[in-house]
Structures are given as structure tokens and as C-alpha cells.
């Protein structure tokens, strides 16, 4: 498949205020139990995302290797889980909710990330700061559901490939469109898209 087509398969929404929310929604051609297992079972997560460890139950904590960690707040198989999503030494409020629902022969996947982002960071990058990262993650999930042995692209080198740069640029512009639809002035959106693209795909 042309992985850049994956960008067009998703819908994106942005909302702001004291906390900013990015929402990505798309349908996978897989049964809900398969998508749920891919998103919650450690042995499958390490195949398309990253190794996950911890006390993986409601009230327990988790840690993604080299990435975020937090507390498991809700888990309602096979439809919903909510976790705190904490990264860095002094993280503010950050919470991720994944919701699944049957959609014909497939599964509607919705990921909502709500966080208190520093004003200067939101002004500079907008929703693409987290949105592009989630698009890259969901690309890994897409590849895994198509072929269980496929892995998430290596973020350290993906931006150096033509395909990777096209994917990142398309993702950044898609989040820019969602930012614009949320009422952000066009000049601010254009600057945020340029900054986000340069961050994820530096020359």
C-alpha cells in the first residue's frame, strides 16, 4: 500500500481552552476483538509499537519503553480504555482515551488525547505536536493489522526516506486543516504546520 493514503483514511478534530484535545478517528478492516488485542496485549504491542511493562490492570501503572507512562484509569474490553499519558520530568495533565466500536465488518477506532500543553509550545506547533506522532503510531497499527509481522516505522530514520517525508508532511498539513477548522487564524496555522513539519522531518 501507499502509506501516505493512510492520512486520508482518518478524520481529525482539534479543540482548545485550558486543555487542548486532538482526536483521530478511522475505520480498520479488522474485527473489534483483534484491534482490542493489538492495542492492549503486551506481546502484540511490542510488535507494532514499543515494549510495555507494568501492573496492567485498572488502578495499575504502565511504562512504554523510552516513551510515556502513567496510570490505567478505565478498561472496558473490547470497547474502551483510558490512561494518563505522562512524559518527561514535570508533566502536566495528559490523558489518552481509546474507544472501539463495531462498524460493519470492521472496527471504528477513536483516539482522544487531552493535555495541558505549554502556551508557547501550542503556539509554535499547534495540534501537530502530538497529532503527527499519533499518525505515525497508527500507521504502525495499520501495518500490523494487515500483516502481523509488520512493525512501526523507525522514527529515527523514517523522515530520511521519500515515503517518510511525504507521510509526515501530509500528516502535518492534515492537522493544520483540523486546526483551521477549529477557528485558528490561517497565518498561525501555516506557521504551526511549517514548524511541525520541520521538527518531524528536518532537512
Automatic annotation (TrEMBL):
This is Activator of HSP90 ATPase. It comes from Acrocarpospora corrugata. Residues 29-138 form the Activator of Hsp90 ATPase homologue 1/2-like C-terminal domain. The lineage of its organism: Bacteria, Bacillati, Actinomycetota, Actinomycetes, Streptosporangiales. CDD domains: SRPBCC_CalC_Aha1-like_6 (cd08899). Pfam families: AHSA1. Gene3D superfamilies: 3.30.530.20. InterPro entries: ASHA1/2-like_C, START-like_dom_sf. Belongs to the AHA1 family. It comes from the Bacteria. SUPFAM superfamilies: Bet v1-like.
Amino acid at each position: 500500500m501507499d502509506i501516505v493514503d493512510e492520512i486520508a483514511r482518518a478524520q481529525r478534530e482539534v479543540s482548545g481552552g485550558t486543555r487542548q484535545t486532538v482526536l483521530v478517528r478511522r475505520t480498520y478492516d479488522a474485527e473489534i476483538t483483534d484491534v482490542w488485542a493489538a492495542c492492549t496485549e503486551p506481546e502484540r504491542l511490542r510488535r507494532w509499537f514499543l515494549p510495555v511493562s507494568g501492573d496492567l490492570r485498572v488502578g495499575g501503572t504502565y511504562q512504554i519503553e523510552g516513551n510515556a507512562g502513567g496510570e490505567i484509569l478505565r478498561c472496558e474490553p473490547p470497547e474502551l480504555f483510558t490512561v494518563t499519558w505522562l512524559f518527561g520530568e514535570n508533566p502536566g495533565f495528559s490523558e489518552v482515551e481509546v474507544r472501539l466500536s463495531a462498524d460493519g465488518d470492521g472496527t471504528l477506532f477513536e483516539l482522544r488525547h487531552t493535555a495541558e500543553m505549554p502556551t508557547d509550545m501550542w503556539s509554535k506547533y499547534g495540534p501537530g505536536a502530538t497529532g503527527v506522532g499519533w499518525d505515525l503510531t497508527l500507521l504502525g497499527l495499520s501495518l500490523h493489522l494487515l500483516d502481523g509481522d509488520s512493525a512501526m516505522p523507525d522514527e529515527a530514520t523514517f523522515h530520511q526516506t521519500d515515503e517518510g517525508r511525504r507521510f509526515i508532511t501530509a500528516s502535518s498539513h492534515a492537522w493544520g486543516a483540523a486546526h483551521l477548522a477549529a477557528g485558528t487564524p490561517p497565518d498561525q496555522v501555516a506557521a504551526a504546520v511549517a514548524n511541525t513539519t520541520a521538527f518531524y522531518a528536518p532537512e
